[in-house]
Amino acid sequence: MGGWACLGPGSIRATPHCLPQPIYNPRMAPLGILFVCIGNTCRSPMAEAMARAMGGDRVRAYSAGLNPTGRVARETIEVLDALGYDARGLQSKDIDRVPMDDVDVIVSLIGPSGLRYLPHGLAARLESWSIRDPYGDDTEVYHAVARTIEGRVRELIDELLTTELPTI
Q1: Is the CB of residue 160 less than 8 Å from the CB of residue 57?
Q2: CA atoms of 153 and 48, how far apart (whole Å)
Q3: Bridge pairing between strands 18-22 and 59-65
Q4: Helix orientation angle between 74-82 and 43-55, rounded to the nearest 10 degrees
Q5: Whole-angstrom Cα distance, residue 56 to residue 26?
Q6: Residue 23: pLDDT band with limits 50, 70, 90
Q7: Average pLDDT of span 90-112
Q8: Mean pLDDT of 114-129
Q9: CB neighbours of residue 73 within 10 Å
């Protein structure tokens, strides 16, 4: 069963201006979230590790690249470790290696342009975040980017895993 999320501030009403949004039900299968960037080297692996930790058994997190480099950056692993996230199992991979039937939400970390390269006809909610690519920068930039991603992932997980229906 879904709830209603309205575009108007502070009001929740079933009007033509409202869009139905899925409300997570703990009895449902885990929610699948795919994070996409260019190389699947820095940003999307960070988001995957963070979503796995924040969502626990209620989330299946994936990451992929539009043009994967085949490796996760050493700085990405170091920053995740420093922030307390488990980086084990992270791999740089193409979207074709993600079980798209299990994906409910796709987040482009490179802004709207990343959504244009996704396969057509996906039955998933699409999100677009413009997150700076730290590739080749120093550790401070990696930490700043990780903190930005951490905040955005936390907001998304909190929104998606809401178990109570809004009051109408």
Answers
A1: no
A2: 9
A3: unpaired
A4: 30
A5: 12
A6: low
A7: 95
A8: 90
A9: 20
Task: Return the structure tokens found at 85.
Answer: 């996230």
Return d(Cα 62, Cα 83) in angstroms, integer. 19
Measured CA to CA, the distance from residue 146 to residue 163 in angstroms comes to: 27
Which residue type, as a one-letter code, is found at position 91?
Answer: Q
Secondary structure (H, E, C), the chain:
CEEEEECCCCCCCCCCCEEEEECCCCCCCCEEEEEEECCCCCHHHHHHHHHHHHHHHHEEEEEEECCCCCCCCHHHHHHHHHCCCCCCCCCCCEHHHCCHHHCCEEEECECHHHHHHCCCCCCCEEEECECCCCCCCCHHHHHHHHHHHHHHHHHHHHHHCCCCCCCC
What does the longest C-alpha to C-alpha distance in the chain come to?
Answer: 49
| Full-model pTM | 0.81
User: The tokens 């309205």 sit on which residue?
Assistant: 6
pLDDT band at 52 (very low <50, low <70, confident <90, very high): very high
